Each structure stands twice: as C-alpha cells, then as structure tokens.
C-alpha cells in the first residue's frame, strides 16, 4: 500500500509541476506515514546526509565562476576568438556557435549559463548576418548541451556524489564525448548550409594577424579550462578545490580585463546563491527519496523486470537510454538524475556497465531534455532571445537533436570515448 501511495504522489506532483525537491519530500513523507514503520525524523537525517559530502562544495563554485564570466564579458572574448577561426566558412556563425560552446564548457559546467550568456552574443551576431532566426535559436540550444559534458560539470559532480564515483575520472571521461557531440553538430551544420535558407551572408576570412590578436585578447580566458582540468589531472587540486580555483581565476580575469566591480560581484553572488540553493535543496531531498526507494527495493524490481526481458548488456543500454531520454523530456539535468540514480546505479552493477561510462550516458541523456519539449528550457531561452515562436524553434532543432542522438549512441556503444582518458591519466 505504501508503495502505491509513494508512486501516486510522485506522479501526480510531478505532472502538477510542483518543484522537484518538494515532490521528492512529499512522496517520501507519504511513504513513511502510510507504512508506520519509520519515524519522520529520518527525513531530516537523510537530507542532511545527502549534502554533507565535500564534493558538493564544488557546485556553488562552478556556478559562481560561470556567472562571473558571463557578467564580466569573458564570453564575448571567447566568441570573438571563435569567430576569427571559423567565421569565414559557409554558415560560419553556426560553427562559431559550436566552437564557442566547447570552449565555454571548460569554464561553466552549465548549459543554462551557456545559453543565457554566450547565447545572447551568438544569436545577435547570427540575426545581424541574416541567418535564419529559428535555426539560430536551435543551434544555440543544441551546442549548449555540450556544456554539462565537458568538465567542469555540475551534473557530473551530482552523479559522483550519488554513485560514489571519482569526480576527477568523470570529468576526464566527459572530454571526448563532448568533442564527439561537437563533431556531430558540425556535420549536421555542413549538411544544412547546403540550403541557402539556413545560412546568412558569408563573413570575410580573418587574417593570421587578426586571429593572433583575438587569441591574445582572450588568452587568459582560453587557458582557464586547461588550468582547471589540468590541475585535477595532475593531482594539484581536488575537484572541489578546482571550483575555488575557477572562481579565483574568474576574479583575476575581471581584474585583467578591467570589468570587475563591487556591484557586479554582489549581483553575481546573489545569482549564484539562488541557483546553488535550488540544486543543493534537490540533492538534500534526494537523500531521503533514495532511502525510501531502496527500502521498497525499487531498483531490484526494475532490474528483475529488465533481466526478464534481456540478459544482453547492449539491449539493456538501449532500454536505459530510452528511459533516461523520456525522463529528461519531463525533468532535465541534475533534478532528473537524483530521481533515477538509485535504479541507474543498480542496473549498472547488474549488467557490468562501468559506473563512469554510465555517468556520461546519463548526463548526455538528461541534458538533452533541455532542448526537448515539454521542458526544453535551453530551447525556450534561445527562442526568446531570437524572437521566434517556440514551435518554429522546435522544428528547426530536429536535425540538431538527431545529431546529438547519434553522438549519444556512439558514446554508449563505444565505451573507449568515455574511459580512454581517465584510464590513461589516472589508471584503470
């Protein structure tokens, strides 16, 4: 009976658009009240246990670093450098969009930060160059999906906490899959720009001198990912310390570029506090929720069901991908991950799937929800910036979604893309 109440509350509140943290807590409390076997105090205890890990201190740091870089104009320097490199190609601003997102991914860890900051600059440039507005919005939303995959990554920090996996290994595991996603998006752009309606006016090729000037102008911003990821790989800093390093480096950039002010710092701290608080509240709620799920043996039940269907890991991976994609359509990112993590981790052990590889698969699937209705937050933001109806943006995003789906399948069935770097640099 308690399982029925738990599931019913979860589904009803989920579809009623109740905040995910509140949904998880109400469902857990409902389970405890109906079962009568556990004290309510266990909810607070499990919530506290869910956020006591030092790993989670990295989350507000990465968020603050991304917000500072957006507010201080660092993203514009990244865009200008990418423009100098590939802006002259046919449909060049689409490639610029993808390349700039890859570079910014190494600083932000958030696709929302990518769209809200870098996206404004990219879409304005595309609209000014007579690019199709719907495609401009679509490619901006699609390229932002790379943000949470290439380190640093907020969703991978959350997974590391939930699955007790090395954050450093996860960060290294995200680099090649992120580049695969960028390559697939570039390939679809190459196909799309054969149709003149999708691309705007060509831009003049930047001279070698101009490329060097843009690189020099954005040098300190461009080496930020190498400092953050390199510091972790060499064992100089932990992932949490790397978050602090990212913030300190962002402040240094503000001083170097003379764009940091007290008012901007206060504004950035306020934005980061709100964003971080929301994520950490969800993680806290997931501590109580995960306890209830395990008490009811939900992972085992799901595992037995899938095993009854197939004992082949590749088919199980397809089913996991399908389930994660469907969940991501309803609740994207870290919020969705905390709901499904207990089942996901159990299935990984059942089918012998490396937990690091599984984490990358989950991150790509759930982040894709940011551009798939009904959530589609990244697509919604980019459509508003571009001034196009959501329906037009959704239609234009289909080829980019298929490209990202292809990259997901490549990463899923070629584990080397996820495991080669961490095994090489940190040992298998």
Overall description:
There is one protein chain. With 428 residues, the chain is mainly alpha-helical. The chain folds into two domains: 1-38, no CATH class; 55-426, no CATH class. It is 77% helix and 0% strand. It has 23 helices and no strands. Helix 5 packs antiparallel against helix 12 and helix 8 runs antiparallel to helix 21 (377-386). The longest helix is centred in the middle third of the chain and has 34 residues, at 262-295. The relative contact order is 0.15. The model has no long low-confidence stretch (mean pLDDT 83).
Based on CA inertia axes, which overall geometry fits?
globular
Total count of helical runs of at least 4 residues: 23
Give the termini separation: 45 Å
Largest sheet: none
Brief write-up:
The chain is mostly helical. The protein folds into two domains: 1-38, no CATH class; 55-426, no CATH class.
Please name the defining characteristics of this protein.
single chain; mainly alpha; 23 helices; globular; 428 residues
Provide the fold topology:
Blueprint: H1 2-15, H2 20-35, H3 41-50, H4 58-71, H5 74-86, H6 92-108, H7 111-128, H8 133-144, H9 154-163, H10 167-173, H11 175-192, H12 208-217, H13 219-222, H14 224-233, H15 239-256, H16 262-295, H17 298-309, H18 313-330, H19 334-350, H20 355-367, H21 377-386, H22 390-413, H23 416-426
């Amino acid at each position: 009976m308690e399982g029925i109440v738990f599931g019913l509350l979860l589904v009803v509140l989920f579809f009623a658009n109740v905040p995910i943290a509140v949904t998880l807590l109400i469902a857990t409390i409902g389970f405890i009240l109906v079962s009568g076997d556990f004290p309510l105090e266990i909810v607070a205890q499990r919530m506290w246990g869910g956020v006591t890990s030092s790993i989670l201190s990295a989350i507000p740091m990465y968020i603050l670093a991304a917000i500072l870089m957006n507010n201080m104009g660092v993203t514009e320097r990244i865009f200008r450098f990418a423009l100098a490199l590939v802006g002259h190609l046919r449909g060049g601003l689409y490639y610029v969009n993808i390349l700039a997102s890859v570079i910014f991914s190494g600083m932000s860890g958030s696709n929302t930060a990518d769209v809200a900051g870098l996206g404004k600059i990219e879409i304005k440039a595309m609209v000014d160059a007579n690019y199709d507005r719907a495609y401009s919005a679509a490619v901006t939303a699609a390229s932002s999906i790379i943000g949470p995959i290439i380190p640093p990554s907020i969703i991978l920090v959350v997974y590391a906490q939930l699955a007790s996996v090395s954050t450093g290994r996860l960060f290294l595991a995200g680099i090649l899959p992120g580049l695969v996603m960028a390559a697939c998006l570039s390939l679809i752009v190459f196909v799309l720009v054969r149709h003149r309606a999708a691309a705007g006016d060509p831009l003049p090729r930047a001279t070698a001198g101009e490329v060097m000037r843009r690189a020099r102008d954005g040098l300190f911003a461009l080496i930020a990912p190498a400092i953050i990821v390199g510091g972790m790989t060499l064992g100089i800093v932990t992932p949490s310390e790397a978050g602090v390093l990212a913030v300190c480096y962002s402040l240094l950039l503000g001083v170097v570029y003379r764009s940091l002010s007290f008012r901007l710092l206060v504004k950035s701290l306020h934005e980061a506090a709100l964003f971080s608080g929301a994520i950490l509240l969800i993680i806290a709620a997931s501590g109580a929720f995960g306890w209830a799920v395990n008490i009811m043996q939900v992972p085992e039940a799901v595992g037995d069901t899938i095993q009854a269907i197939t004992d082949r890991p590749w088919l199980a991976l397809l089913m996991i991908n399908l389930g994660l994609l469907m969940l991501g359509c309803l609740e994207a990112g870290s919020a969705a991950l905390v709901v499904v993590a207990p089942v996901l981790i159990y299935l990984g052990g059942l089918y012998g799937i490396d937990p690091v590889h599984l984490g990358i698969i989950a991150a790509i699937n759930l982040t894709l929800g940011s551009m798939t209705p009904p959530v589609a937050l990244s697509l919604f933001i980019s459509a508003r910036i571009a001034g196009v109806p959501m329906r037009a943006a959704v239609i234009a995003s289909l080829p980019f979604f298929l490209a990202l789906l292809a990259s997901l399948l490549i990463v899923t069935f070629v584990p080397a893309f996820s495991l080669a770097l961490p095994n090489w640099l940190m040992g298998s």
